[in-house]
Amino acid sequence: KERNANEPEFLQAVEEVAETVIPYIVKHDIYYGKNILLRMVEPERVITFRVCWVDDAGEIQVNRGYRIQMNSAIGPYKGGLRFHPTVNMSILKFLAFEQVFKNSLTTLPMGGGKGGSDFDPKGKSDNEIMRFCHAFMSELFRHIGPSTDVPAGDIGVGAREIGFLFGMYKKLKNEFTGVLTGKGLSWGGSLIRPEATGYGNVYFAQQMLSTKGDSFDGKNVVISGSGNVAQYAAEKTIQLGGKVLTLSDSSGYIYDEAGIDAEKLAHVMELKNVKRVRISEYLNKYPNAKFFEGKTPWEVKCDIALPCATQNELHEEDAKMLLDNGCICVSEGANMPSTKEAIKLFHEAKILFAPGKASNAGGVATSGLEMTQNSLRYKWSREEVDSKLKEIMADIHQSCIEYGKDEDGYIDYVKGANIAGFVKVADAMLAQGIV
Ligand code: NDP
C-alpha cells in the first residue's frame, strides 16, 4: 500500500482481487508462503515516454505516453491503449493488473499489459490524430512486437487510431506482423473484433440468466456509454429480444422509452463513429427521447444493467436505485465500472453480478483469435469467430462457477473470476521460478 499510495484505482483493483484470492492461497500449500500475489502486483516493466507532435495551428504539443508490461507468465503482454486526458499511472496499472486475470480467463496464452496517453482525441482533426499516433508509435515500437507485447484499442483508440499506429510501426520495423489487434479487415484484422467486447458481455449475461432459466427476451436493458463496447452490447441485446432504453456519454444519458431499435442504433453509430458528436444529438432525429444532462442512467427502471463507459461510473447510491427498481442482473462491459460499495450491495441482494474481467473478456479473447489468424496467415469466417467467442464466454462462465459457487448455491462471479484467473498465472510463475 505504501509503495503505491498515490494510485487509488490500482489499489482498488488489487484489494478486490486480494480479498478473494488471499483466503484461497491460505488454504492451498502450493501457493502459500511464496509471496506470489506480491510478485503479481509489481509490473515486470513500466515505460513512460515523451510524445511531441505539431497541431494544425503549428503549435508543438507535448503529451506523456505509457506502456505497463504487467505480467508475461503465460504469454506475450496483451492489452489496450487508452487515449484520454485522465490517463495516469494509477489508471493504467489498475487496467494492466485486471488484464492479467482477464487474459488468463480467456483460456488463450496471453500475458497482461496496458498503455496509452493523456492525449485528448476530442475535437482533434484526423491529421492531428494521425500525427499524434505516429509520434506515439515512434517510441513505443522499440518495446513491442508480435511475440513480446501486442497492444489493442481502448477508450479513445478505435480502428482509425490502430491504423495510424500500425502504419508507423510497419514503416519503422520494415515488417508486416500482427503487432496490434483491432486492425482493419483488409490488413490483418479479424471479423467480429469490433463487436467482440459488447457481444461477449451480452453472451456472458445470457449465461448468467440461463442459470435462473431466464433470458434477454422482453427484458428492459439500461446501457451506459455509446462507444465501441456500448454500441455492440446494444446490438446483441436487440438481437436477443431485449429493449435498450438508454445510452450515454460523458455529457449525460439519453432515454428512449420506445426502445433504441436497430435503426436508431445505426444512427447512434453514425453520430459517434462518423460525425463524432455528443449523444444528445440523438434527440434531433428522435425528439420523443429525453436527454438527462450530467447524469448516469442507473435511475431508469430496468431488469438488466450493462455499464459500458468507464471505471467507477456506478456508485453505491446507483446500485441502491437499480436494486429498488428490480434489476436482476448487472454485467460489466467496462473495466471496474462499479465501485466496491456498489458490488457489496449487489452481492448482498444476491443478484447476478459479473465483474468486467470475466464479462468483457470477449474483446481480448477475439484479439487473441486475431493473433492466431495473423500467425497462421489465415482468415476465419464471421460465423467461426463468433462461435469461438461464444464458446470462450461459456468457458469463462464455467470457470467462475467452479471457483465462485458458494455453499448456498449463489455464484460469486467476482471470487470465481479472481481465483480462476489467479491459478493459471500463479502456476506458470511457480513453474518458471523466481524471475
Ligand atoms: P470508447 O472510447 O469507444 O467509448 C467510451 C464511452 O464511454 C464513450 O461513450 C465515452 O463518452 C464514455 N466515457 C469515457 N470516459 C468517461 C467518463 N470519464 N465519464 C463518463 N463517460 C465516459 O471506449 P470503449 O467502448 O472501447 O471502452 C469502454 C470501456 O470498456 C472502458 O472501460 C474500456 O476499458 C472497456 N473495455 C473495452 C474493450 C474494447 O475492446 N474496446 C475491451 C474490454 C474493456 P465520451 O465520448 O463523452 O468521452
Task: Write up this protein.
GO terms for molecular function: glutamate dehydrogenase (NADP+) activity; nucleotide binding. Residues 190-433 form the Glutamate/phenylalanine/leucine/valine/L-tryptophan dehydrogenase C-terminal domain. The active site is at 114 (proton donor). Substrate binds at residues 78, 99, 102, 153, 367. This protein is an alpha/beta fold and 435 residues long. Among the domains are: 43-180, Leucine Dehydrogenase, chain A, domain 1 (Rossmann fold, 3-Layer(aba) Sandwich); 194-359, 3-Layer(aba) Sandwich (Rossmann fold). It has helices at residues 8-27, 36-40, 89-105, 126-140, 159-173, 193-210, 228-239, 262-275, 282-285, 316-324, 340-349, 356-359, 362-376, 382-404, 413-432, and strands at 45-54, 60-71, 77-83, 112-117, 149-152, 220-224, 243-249, 252-255, 290-293, 304-307, 329-331, 352-354. The strands form 2 sheets. Strands 9-8-7-6-10-11-12 form a 7-stranded mixed β-sheet, with helices on both faces. It binds NADPH dihydro-nicotinamide-adenine-dinucleotide phosphate. The site of NADPH dihydro-nicotinamide-adenine-dinucleotide phosphate has 24 residues, from α7. NADPH dihydro-nicotinamide-adenine-dinucleotide phosphate (NDP) binds at residues 153-156, 158, 197, 225-230, 249-251, 308-310, 313, 333-335, 360, 363.
